[in-house]
DNA sequence: ATAGTCAGGTTGTCCGGACAAAGGATTGAC
DNA sequence: GTCAATCCTTTGTCCGGACAACCTGACTAT
């Protein structure tokens, strides 16, 4: 498989093993005075190198020992950097072989993302129309999802998301009171998740359900679809890192203009 | 928060700090003669304890140093065990505070799972009807997804999945030739992913797209739905750890009988 | 009473080393 | 020439220790 390359390895260390260490030509280095962890610096540099194509898919990374020595780091630190990229699905390790850049196109392993951010990343310049922003007693289903008493006061936010002037999704969200103030102006200008993060809430996990159903007359009118037209639906409950439910949403999408696309990894 | 449970266990080890170490009353231990890694043994035991409720949500885990000493392990090993559970979303670490069991209900963070396994786990006893299992030239879209030449031979498998005697989903899958033999009998008795794993293929990642559309007359007849009824659709390309595309599938589901439910974590 | 300071406890990061396990390639025997 | 045994390389696991960063609660000074 490997041609017998003319290995004239005297001391003239003219590229010792060029075909088995793609990091040799990379300029890697860490800043020990920086507060950002060394393993993180390294993993970011490697990820950037993969991103811009300096590390091509399938190329070997060179063994950890040598890499550590070259960077003046310990092997555990280098391993931690590599491991984080393995967890992201960018690298694959094989005992006895080495670490190589994964072959396929891995974009993003499905983050807990907001529709607004998704659209903005796609260059769609989304517009938002706030249809409602009120306080009201929680219906039974909402109270159950948010783990609060039925009838307790909750915020109800209804929004219409448009792209290119056309409606794309109808978003109905319920939030517990007292988390942060819900300014309608901000709601129109940015996404809900961004507002929550800005308010110091660290999102942890979400439970989602994606389905489909026929549009009611009211739904059809909102989204500019005929009654009975297929709609893509999503319900989601979001939790912060203390386990509190911080948001429950019911969304409907026009399937001609939106679909859920994501990448997922097998969990080791 | 935690009542001081009266644990009369043996020689008066009168629970040093009962409210700050919920693992104290657990019987944890590792088998050093086992080939399974120590950190994995520990993480499994902790996960099982969480699963069965021995470790209640919000309870502290006790500091790593002491836990390591109690088990006769080193701190890095204990950390590795805990870290794997943090990655799964079962635990939350806070510097200066400790490690605690996450409060919310985290079931499964969206694995790369097969419909068959999902149904079986739900106790549905799925049935499969193999409608087609043939070799044919790859259409353009399939060839692009599988990264092979257009017109190259591929397997086409069409199946109908039923629960309680009613059709639930129509599955159309394309596979490259030469991976493994596709026995129709096995296809009817188990899932495609299980067959692939059994054939030594290690799945790595998949790219999915979930949408909705109205049923055509043919689709409606297959799934016992009227034409124009809303259907839930999913396309998926699966890759193995070498980056090869090993499967491309187009599935349609009856939304009244199936929806995608999953949990997702914010990636740190 | 309030605010700032300090100390204790816990996780985060990093180091250096050691041996085991697995895969590939070479070598040897037949 | 083919197959098996062996060696080498590389990652996997594990250890023990050290210091830094951070949070909490108590204490002190205002």
UniProtKB/TrEMBL annotation, chains A, B:
<dbReference type="GO" id="GO:0003677">
    <property type="term" value="F:DNA binding"/>
</dbReference>
<dbReference type="Pfam" id="PF00392">
    <property type="entry name" value="GntR"/>
</dbReference>
<dbReference type="InterPro" id="IPR028978">
    <property type="entry name" value="Chorismate_lyase_/UTRA_dom_sf"/>
</dbReference>
<dbReference type="GO" id="GO:0045892">
    <property type="term" value="P:negative regulation of DNA-templated transcription"/>
</dbReference>
<dbReference type="InterPro" id="IPR036390">
    <property type="entry name" value="WH_DNA-bd_sf"/>
</dbReference>
<keyword id="KW-0804">Transcription</keyword>
<protein>
    <submittedName>
        <fullName>Transcriptional regulator</fullName>
    </submittedName>
</protein>
<feature type="domain" description="HTH gntR-type">
    <location>
        <begin position="36"/>
        <end position="104"/>
    </location>
</feature>
<keyword id="KW-0805">Transcription regulation</keyword>
<dbReference type="GO" id="GO:0003700">
    <property type="term" value="F:DNA-binding transcription factor activity"/>
</dbReference>
<keyword id="KW-0238">DNA-binding</keyword>
<dbReference type="InterPro" id="IPR036388">
    <property type="entry name" value="WH-like_DNA-bd_sf"/>
</dbReference>
<dbReference type="InterPro" id="IPR011663">
    <property type="entry name" value="UTRA"/>
</dbReference>
<dbReference type="InterPro" id="IPR000524">
    <property type="entry name" value="Tscrpt_reg_HTH_GntR"/>
</dbReference>
<dbReference type="InterPro" id="IPR050679">
    <property type="entry name" value="Bact_HTH_transcr_reg"/>
</dbReference>
<dbReference type="Pfam" id="PF07702">
    <property type="entry name" value="UTRA"/>
</dbReference>
């Amino acid at each position: 498989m490997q041609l017998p390359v003319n290995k004239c390895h005297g001391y003239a260390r003219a590229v010792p093993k060029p075909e088995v260490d793609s990091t040799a030509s990379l300029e890697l280095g860490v800043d020990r005075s920086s507060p950002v962890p060394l393993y993180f610096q390294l993993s970011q540099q490697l990820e950037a190198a993969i991103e811009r194509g300096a590390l091509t898919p399938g190329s070997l990374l060179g063994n950890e020992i040598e890499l550590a020595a070259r960077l003046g780091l310990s092997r555990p630190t280098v391993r931690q950097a590599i491991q984080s990229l393995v967890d992201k699905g960018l690298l694959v390790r094989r005992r006895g072989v080495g670490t190589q850049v994964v072959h396929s196109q891995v974009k993003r392993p499905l983050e807990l993302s907001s529709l607004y951010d998704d659209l903005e990343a796609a260059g769609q310049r989304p517009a938002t129309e706030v249809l409602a922003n009120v306080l009201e007693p929680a219906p039974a289903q909402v109270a159950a999802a948010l783990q609060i008493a039925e009838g307790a006061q909750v915020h109800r936010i209804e929004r219409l998301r448009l792209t290119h002037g056309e409606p794309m999704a109808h978003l109905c969200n319920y939030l517990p009171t007292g988390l942060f103030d819900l300014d309608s102006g901000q709601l129109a200008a940015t996404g809900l998740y961004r507002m929550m993060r800005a308010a110091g809430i660290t999102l942890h996990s979400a439970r989602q359900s994606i389905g489909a159903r026929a549009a009611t007359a009211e739904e059809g009118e909102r989204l500019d679809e005929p009654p009975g037209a297929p709609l893509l639906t999503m319900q989601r409950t979001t939790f912060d890192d203390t386990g509190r439910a911080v948001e429950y949403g019911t969304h409907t999408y026009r399937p001609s203009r939106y679909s859920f696309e994501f990448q997922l990894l097998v969990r080791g």
